Amino acid sequence: MPEPRIGIFICHCGSNIGGVVDIPHVLESVKDLPNVVHVEDYKYLCSKPGQQIIKDRISEMRLDRVVIGSCSPRMHELTFRQMMREANMNPFLLEIANLREQDSWIHQDSPEAATEKAIDLIRMAIARARLLEPLEETEVVIEKTALIIGGGIAGISAALDIADAGFKVYIVEKEPSIGGKMARWDKTFPTLDCASCILTPRMAEAGSHPNIELITMAEVDKVDGFVGNFEVTIKQRPRYVDIDKCTSCGDCSAVCPVDVPAEFDANLTYRKAIYIPFAQAVPSAYLLDMESCLGVDAVRCGKCKEACGADAINYDDHEKTIQLKVGTIIVATGFDLFDATKKEEYGYGEFPNVVNIGEVERMLSSAGPTQGHMVRPSDLKEPKRIVYVQCVGSRDERTNRYCSRICCMTAIKQARMIRDKLGAEIYIFYIDLRTFGKGYEEFYESTAAAGVNFIRGRVGEIIEDPETHSLTVRGEDTLLGKPVNLDDVDLVVLSTGVVPSRSAKKVQHILNLSESPDGFLLEAHPKLRPVDSFNDGIFVAGMAQGPKDIPDTVAQAKAAAAGAMALMGKGKITIEPYYSIVDENKCSGCRVCVSVCPYNAISINEREKANINPALCKGCGTCTATCPSGAITSQHYTDGQILAMINEYLSGAIETPQE
After folding, report:
1. 173-183 confidence digits (pLDDT tens)
2. Domain 335-499, what fold?
3. pTM of the model
């Protein structure tokens, strides 16, 4: 086998690397190493001229290995791989030494140390490059259908974009209707547009679109397969009402004798055991809550079935299992409001006149439990003095450290609407007002000019008069540096932050997705891949990824839809050959690798040997490290390659001991 011919190319990256590292000295130090036949530097190797230089040298010098000293491989490895393809060279005979993030950026105060480290990194890269082998990428056919988990504004927006492009879309929603939390909100900030007026046309469009199939009252139970070929198992709860037959006349609900708290209205009013969540629900059909129903036979009740002229009620309905095969998945599981009972000092759940922003939204809605009138829950009278407490469950070391983003503007919006309706005296206690969006700061200023009082400081305690249910709010004004006591407060509104949806945890486990420290789903890269997950073909959008307002949610949903369409539009995708391979002659079938694989990529074949699915394997090396027989090898990151890098570094360290 001929000796490898290695070319070394170092990028200045403007002054990011070249301003710290002595690049001529680095090249001089490595030019005579074994198998190195060419060294060269250029200001921007990622540029077209820079890439052309490398392609020219590959041809002129008959290079069969390339080492590039540049920024992180996460930035431009794909760029340089494509460059090597254009030079008729296998793209996996490339090694990148990270001279920016791992060297120059962290050693700016010591150019000498940075230069020595750069030499070590290039030497180690050369040692590995000698052992690199050409690898072939495999192709996978993409199923041209998409699954969207969650039917809120993010899921609906993504579904419509994909469906309009001609692809089949399934929306799985755990609630009886799509619409999500936005369907419960009254107005949107800063324009005070009607939330339902924006949302319900999109809901209706999704419900009637020929390429969209709604699967409500359902949850994803299992997902097998890989990018382009996901096999999805869905469990759908019984509705006990035939959607196709139901005319939404309401005759069944009119005769139902049962009253239970209405979840959609934040439990501020009651619904029947057979009900429709809200007037604009999609699908527009009633459902029967069997847990609240008195009984499904004529002896105990049966009134709803008797009243239904369309014969849409089916007491024998049962849970269904739905099997789907899809090419891409978008997770848009939304959010929940923080449980304010965890902040005992505010009395939520104990004092009737302490409410959260979600409950106020339903009060302000003309279709809500109070027909748009603000009332005190204790006596249903109009409040004259209202206090908002910001950052409840956000920016708090004891609950959630992150900012929920929407709370400040939601409180300002509600305060403005209440002020305009009632002329009530309103105070907002805040830590910092975060009015980050287009027109938000102007809306805050106009709200303050309209008479809403803003107090910078925390609320420490809320006390209730048990006879009148009026409240005393104790806090501080940090701008004035003095305590604040507000007596005879009629209503306290807690601006509760947002937390990941309860269903998101299950979805995360089923899809094997990563989680950021705040509990939301983790994107592959916050700037370059903000809607991609680490699993190919699976995208995240909206509040599932982190707190955001409606415009950002819709924008992210469109980005996720674009990513899904890009994959499905190709028809097939190439899989990076970083997967592990099994030597069946050594494999004992012990199944240790199956138990440790984080991607469920390993199974046992009919010969009782480990079998690795290349499309699922991410080359993490966990199986390689734990295989007791040494039967598994990680392609492109073999033990020999890693050992060569270590030995090269150690030999240099011995020759040039550190002071």
Report:
1. 999 999 999 99
2. FAD/NAD(P)-binding domain (3.50.50)
3. 0.85
